[in-house]
Amino acid sequence: MKTQECTKRGRTAGRVAAVVAVLVIAGGAVAIGTSNTLTAATAPAAAAVAGSALPVSFADMIEKVGPAVVNIQVTAGDSATPAHMEPREFRGPKDMPEFFRRFFGDEFGKRFGDEFGKRFGGDHGRRSGQHRMQGMGSGFIIDKDGYIVTNDHVVRGAEKILVTLKDEEQYEATLIGRDRKTDLALIKIEADRDLTFVPFGDSDAVRVGDWVVAVGNPFGLDHTVTAGIISARGRAIGNGPYDDFLQIDAPINKGNSGGPTFNLRGEVIGVNTAIFSPTGGSVGIGFAIPSSLAQKVIADLKENGRVERGWLGVNIQGVNKDMAASLNLDKARGAIVSTVMPDSPAAEAGLEQGDVILAVDGRRVRTVRDLPRLIAGIEGGKSAKLTVWRGGKEKTVRVRIGRMPESMRLGGGAEAEVQGMRLSSLDPALRRAHGIGDDIAGVVVTGVAADSWAAKKGLTAGDVIVSVGNARVSSPADVAARIRQARQQRQKAVLLLINREAQERFVALPLKAA
Q1: Which overall architecture, per CATH, does domain 310-403 show?
Q2: What's the predicted TM-score (pTM) here?
Q3: Rounded Cα gap, residues 432 and 409, in angstroms
Q4: Active site amino acids
Q5: Tens of pLDDT, residues 241-272
Q6: Hey, do 1-73+136-307 and 409-510 end up sharing a CATH topology, with the first three levels equal?
């Protein structure tokens, strides 16, 4: 099983979509926007639903919020093909998705024709001698002026972004900003009218078991609606340092990425971004970025085109029971400092290796994942009070939070894209997500561009690069530096040592264009 970004390749023709819809196959839905005027007519319906054991109907709410959902279609060329899109050629029945094979078998092409196959599998139509790729996702309008929230992985690498509203009006969108660390992006369309939009709700107030509704464009089936509950909170799926997902069981699929998940008041409490599935289709385990995180990121993108994050300048790890006992700490909690970076805010404040950070401005650090989010949410230049466990007792350390360096904002430290591979430094979350043992060192591959030499050589997410050119690597920056050195020496290929499922093998990676 693996976590997959739920971006859809290609747009389904309306005629075909209507036929396919009757299959009732794991219907994915991504929450669609909410109206700018949720009228009094909606409130009684929502109240009736909230006051009963089971919802009577979601119809009133969906009617109001539906116009705020959008379909996002992205065009990119070879040079910009992002790893997340995973384009593939549609080669007939053997290449079609499993559920279509199950229902139609070899009759699929005869019934629906080659055009649907191309669109469903990812449009590789050639223009001017170049491969072109069509990707699709969802989004939702957040104000009357046409600002739209979606996923970063939906629009990353886009040359053209086309937005289609529910009434079939189409607009070419402008990218305002994107944030890879949270997988959020903001785009904008220019319309000659006020647009229906959706408000954010309070994701911190939702509880496990609360009803949610999702609306989106799974596999190009526009404005599909699904319902379910919050299955869990605070999920980490190895997506990055700010993992804090809502887990929902309202079905979402490829094409749902970037759409919202609603509470029963018609407020967006999550932005759908990933699914956990053995097949790529919905099995009832979806993940949404909580609105409490998304709101700040989107506000920064709207104001600055990028996200400004606070920076402390430490490497940290979790505290287990044995560590807690050895430190005379009452229980396993907080984040222990393994390294203090030179000339960092942490160094200037006097933080030390071995300190356990228990709280930031009174907000508890329960696990190692809490600290990056708390620090990132503090504006650079402001002072913060850290509660630290040192020498068997609590100590208060005041630190002036810095601004995250540009190289770290762009993923130059813990993340990078190198030679068609998306690389990340190994951390506990990634080890759990990919089943990588604690004894394995190196750099983990978290994504591979389908048209790259890395993909052609069989590299895949979860592989660990142990060495490059017989030199051990421990960060994406190490891999990039070794490959850059090989290029400077005019090498045609570079030798990678790969660890996959505890087995090591060498791969010669060509350095020419794929």
Answers
A1: Roll (2.30)
A2: 0.60
A3: 24
A4: 153, 183, 257
A5: 677 899 999 888 888 999 999 999 999 999 99
A6: no
